[in-house]
TrEMBL record, chain A:
InterPro entries: NADP_transhyd_a_C
Lipid bilayer topology: Multi-pass membrane protein
Name of the protein in its database record: proton-translocating NAD(P)(+) transhydrogenase
One Pfam family per UniProt: PNTB_4TM
CC terms in the record's Gene Ontology section: plasma membrane
Listed GO biological process terms: NADPH regeneration
Major subcellular location class: membrane
Protein EC: 7.1.1.1
Annotated TM spans: 6-26, 38-54, 60-81
Catalytic activity: NAD(+) + NADPH + H(+)(in) = NADH + NADP(+) + H(+)(out)
NAD(P) transhydrogenase alpha subunit C-terminal domain location: 7-89
Length: 94, 457
């Protein structure tokens, strides 16, 4: 990837992250921390590609750990976030 | 070629879904939809990755996903709401560990394309490994596996030396013409030690801020490794989380009046300190407390972590509903750091069935205390200590507090006469309009409920 294109992606993503969060009410901070924790679980995809290209047993072992940890990050992050958000109910809906 | 296009397009859609998901989580109304969107994005990205041309080890891949996913899914379903912070910490640590492991695979393959790629891989590995080790320590502390804070002599000097050594090794790896395995191994060990040593001396009260900081770290590490692997979806998701996590960390630190540098480098002031408080604590019985609230027109409840630990939130909500039936306006006031993370108390109240319209945060409610007949403080302490406004020598001076002391009557539910979690004397407990209702939150509120019922017949 072109170095400057990557730099632009970095910059725009950083502003996006900052803007998206800045309007979040305090009551959602914990689910949001958990939700953003889930989003970086996409590291799983990187782990899969790393493992997919692994050749020696050492590379395979480390790649396996990467996928294992990434999958746990994604699955766990989703479950706890979803559980927390499922509890936010409005009075009218009750 | 068509497959390549399908994969790239899917990653693009996933990145859009992640951002929309986070955006959705910015309002309680759309928050649930937000996480589902992000979840769809994750499944899409994972599934299309299997189609990537030229990949091997599919059996290992499926096994790792099934194993890691299942264990995390089940433990995530089971964890109690009060234990949520350490659960987030451990999942976050795993993400950091995954980012570091990706870099390790790339180092083992030994074919980095250019100095910039090697630099980003190394940086991502350093940050990811620190986040992994630190998050595990944070989890161990909050879970109670590891007891107290552990401070080395000359802790700050040790931190700095370790950090410099890690950065030095990273620089050596980047500058070396070929990748030296010994250097890489030493680098990873040092990064893990650094993460552990930084986190060890931090006390439980400061831990949420640290977890949030590590969350931002993991995001950055994922973003850097995304560049190394050439996957824009990873870069976007990682950097968005890195930026959002940094902002969230600042918000938390501000709410606690503890700059991040203080949390990392200065231990919490020793217990005590501040002016001695004159006067005595005046007791109230459950029957009188019930009467005061039953005939009030507005009651503001200030819940603290003590209430959640006692599991009393269901009883508190039951009492609120009874009072509302009797025509009393009942609302909840939540300090930004009530519970173990900002917003944690909201989750615990939501679990008990309290609708979010009844829950107000500090800025929204502080003006209302003067018009309230009763402020009911349950298991909260420092966040309602008026010394934070008035006593310059108090360790918590300057921290924003809920002005419960301005209400007509203050009722504090408290186990005993002690100073509580932080060891700081609370001037609120000695004020003329304050009454203390002794007992565990569960039992004390239970008694109040009985008396409110008796009054309403």
């Amino acid at each position: 990837m072109d170095g400057f294109v990557a730099l632009y992606i970095f910059m725009l993503a950083a502003f996006t992250g900052y803007e998206v969060i800045s309007r979040v009410p305090v009551i959602l901070h914990t689910p949001l921390m958990s939700g953003s924790n889930f989003v970086h679980g996409v590291v799983l995809v990187g782990g899969m590609i790393a493992l997919g290209q692994a050749e020696t047993p050492l590379e395979q072992a480390i790649g396996f750990v990467a996928v294992l940890l990434g999958a746990a990050n994604a699955a766990g992050g989703y479950v706890v976030t979803e559980r927390m958000l499922a509890m936010f109910k409005s009075k009218e809906k009750k | 070629m068509a497959i390549k296009w399908l994969i790239d397009a899917s990653y693009f859609v996933a990145a859009v879904l992640f951002i929309l998901g986070l955006k959705g989580m910015s309002s309680p109304v759309s928050a649930r939809k937000g996480i589902v969107w992000a979840g769809v994005g994750m499944v899409l990205a994972t599934v299309v990755t299997f189609l990537t041309p030229g990949m091997n080890n599919f059996a290992l891949m499926v096994l790792a996903i099934a194993l890691g996913g299942a264990v995390a899914w089940i433990s995530g379903k089971k964890v109690a709401m009060t234990d949520m912070p350490q659960m987030v910490a451990i999942y976050n640590g795993m993400g950091g560990g995954a980012a570091a492991a990706i870099a390790a695979v790339e180092f083992a393959r030994g074919e980095m394309h250019g100095t910039v790629v090697t630099l980003l891989a190394t940086l991502g590995a350093l940050i990811g490994a620190v986040s992994f080790a630190g998050s595990v320590v944070a989890w161990a502390k909050l879970q109670g596996v590891m007891k107290s804070a552990f401070r080395l002599p000359a802790q700050n000097a040790v931190n700095i030396v370790l950090a410099l050594a890690a950065v030095g090794l990273a620089a050596a790896i980047v500058l070396a013409p070929t990748i030296d395995p010994m250097l890489v191994v030493a680098f990873f060990i040092l990064s893990l030690v650094l993460g552990t040593i930084i986190t060890l001396p931090i006390g439980g009260a400061d831990m949420p801020v640290v977890i949030s900081l590590f969350n931002a770290f993991t995001g950055l590490a994922v973003g850097f490794e995304g560049f190394v692997m050439g996957i824009p979806a990873l870069i976007i998701a990682g950097i968005v989380v890195g930026a959002a996590g940094t902002l969230l960390t600042q918000l938390m630190a501000k709410a606690m009046n503890r700059p991040i540098s203080n949390i990392l480098f200065v231990p919490m002031a020793a217990a005590g300190g501040g002016e001695a408080v004159e006067g005595e604590q005046k007791e109230i019985g459950a029957m009188d407390a019930a009467a005061v609230m039953r005939y009030a027109s507005k009651v503001i409840i200030v819940p603290g972590y003590g209430m959640a630990v006692a599991g009393a939130q269901h009883k508190v909500w039951e009492m609120s509903e009874l009072l509302e039936e009797a025509g009393v306006e009942v609302v909840f006031a939540i300090h930004p750091v009530a519970g173990r993370m900002p917003g944690h108390m909201n989750v615990l109240l939501a679990e008990a069935g309290v609708p979010y319209e009844k829950i107000f945060d500090l800025e929204e409610i502080n003006g209302d205390f003067a018009q309230a007949d009763v402020a009911l403080v349950i298991g909260a302490n420092d966040v309602v200590n008026p010394s934070a406004r008035t006593d310059k020598s108090s360790p918590i001076y300057g921290m924003p507090i809920l002005n419960a002391d301005l209400a007509q009557n203050v009722i504090v539910v408290k186990r005993g006469k002690g100073t509580g979690y932080s060891g700081i004397e609370n001037a609120l407990f000695y004020k003329d309009n304050t009454r203390l209702l002794y007992g565990s939150a569960q039992q004390a509120i239970g008694e109040v409920i009985q008396h409110v019922k008796a009054l309403s017949v």
